[in-house]
Amino acid sequence: MSAASQSKVLLVEDDDAIATVMIAALEDEGFSIEHCGSMAERDRWLQQQSFDVMLTDVMLEDGDGLSTLENVRSHAPEMPVIVLSAQNTLDTAVRASDNEVFEYFPKPFDLDEVVQAVRQASGARKAQPSETEHLPIEDDGMPLVGRSPAMQSVYRMITRVLRNDLTVLVTGESGTGKELVAEAIHQLGGRRSGPFVAVNTAAIPADLIESELFGHEKGAFTGAIAQAIGKFEQANGGTLFLDEIGDMPAEAQTRLLRALQSGRIRRVGGRQEIGIDVRIVAATNKDLVPMIAAGTFREDLYYRLNVVPIHLPPLRERREDIGVLSQHFLAQAADDGLPRRTLAQDAMHALETRNWRGNVRELRNVIYRLSLMARDDLIDAGNLQDILGNEALAPGGNQQDRDGGIGQALNQWLHEQSPAAGTVYSQALAAFEKPLIEHALSETNGNQLRAAKLLGINRNTLRKRIGELGIEPDRFSRTA
Fold first, then answer.
1. How far is it, in rounded angstroms, from Cα 438 to Cα 443?
2. Among the CATH numbers 3.30.70.270, 2.60.120.810, 1.10.730.10, 1.10.8.60, which is that of 315-392?
3. Nearest 10 degrees: CA dihedral of 298, 304, 158, 155?
4. What is the mean pLDDT of the chain?
5. CATH class name, domain 4-122
């Protein structure tokens, strides 16, 4: 007899359509299911019977199922809980993590993934309660905004690193909010009482970066008139965010690797090693894999940093978030002293159809500009056109124009990235290969076998390139 056939599952879901589908899928796996639609019914079932796993929605007909998990634990302290939620914000993901649920799935979810989680949970014992205090989180205070499926993957990864100090590598285009991810990990994790120190390694001259990171002793070099404490020591007990890590000079990479390996640093010109206790979150808008092949980024440092990869999607890949982001920035602008504005539906549509090459940062700047310059409190498409000019128009054109845009995009990429001699082909190929593979995964709902057939390549080759390019195939699953 299988583990599933011996396991009893309590499903707490007030949407009958969702419940019907889930019951059928779980019973096909051999689980015994009891279903209810309220917290009151849930508590009655738990008083009468014992269950191996509970699946619960958050918003039920008689309240918030997540906020009452203490009642559940009083009846069944060892029972794993899996949370399902249409309230798919970072706040909900963090609350689920804080309540130490076995797994959290935002709606719409992949039914196969939920069944797999129930299968795993049915054989798992509840972990010992964490001594970490409850995090008083308000949704309006969340550093990240968005409810798209792409952002759900980001939220789930963030919640998985809140109870540990694993090193995180955040990747994504400029303006996607990589520093906000680092801030979220710090503010919501166990180091929130310590300092959060951010340093843009691309903005520091190569001859000063070691001093900036590790500090220096008086007289270590010309101009060092006093001892200086570096970013590592400043962040002791907290989080150090290393932005644009791909632009770090080779010699500094070596010293950074040594510090990460040993947990100790030495100030420039100093003799004494100093113990450090920091959590590292690094970020880059570059693809580090071809840089490793070109010899411009250390492979051992890459693997030291890329313990937990989190990829932030560009805004054009999560257009459904543009509305909520726009409303968020309108409120933020009003809080900053600008006139309070609202967006008409036609203006919102115009914003949602733009390409947003500058991503969330560009959207924020545009909303602030509209808040400042609009003549009326209600901003319509005409106001948008008056203020932004041609910027307000979404890129369009015929197929020939779009095909030509590929060449223009390549030229722009070459101009912006300026790859080193001898690496142009490999870096350009990698830069365009990643979105091509991501497109194939998106078109096939994350199914690697079908994606390989679509691309016309071997499945093993695709799997290898997915790993090398840091692609997360799970985030392309859209099946509910």
1. 9
2. 1.10.8.60
3. 40
4. 82
5. alpha beta
The CATH number given to 149-311 is 3.40.50.300
Q: What percent of the chain has pLDDT over 70?
A: 85
Count of residues in the chain: 480
Rg (CA), the chain: 25
What is the enclosing helix (H) or strand (E) of 399? helix 399-417
In whole angstroms, give the CA distance from residue 96 to residue 60: 15
Distances (CA, A) of 28 to 5, 15, 64: 10, 20, 29
Fold classified for 400-476: Arc Repressor Mutant, subunit A (1.10.10)
- Tell me, letter by letter, the H, E, C secondary structure of 276-301: CCCEEEEEECCCHHHHHHHCCCCHHH
pTM of the model as a whole? 0.60
Q: At what angle do helices 322-335 and 359-373 cross, to 10 degrees?
A: 50
Rounded CA-CA distance 418/412 in Å is: 10
Domains 4-122 and 149-311 share a fold: yes
What pLDDT digit, counting tens, does each position of 211-233 carry? Answer: 888 888 887 777 777 878 889 99
162-209 pLDDT per residue, tens: 889 999 999 999 999 999 999 999 988 889 899 999 999 888 887 788
Q: How confident is the model at residue 278 (pLDDT cuts 50, 70, 90)?
A: very high
By the 8 A CB rule, do 221 and 127 touch? no
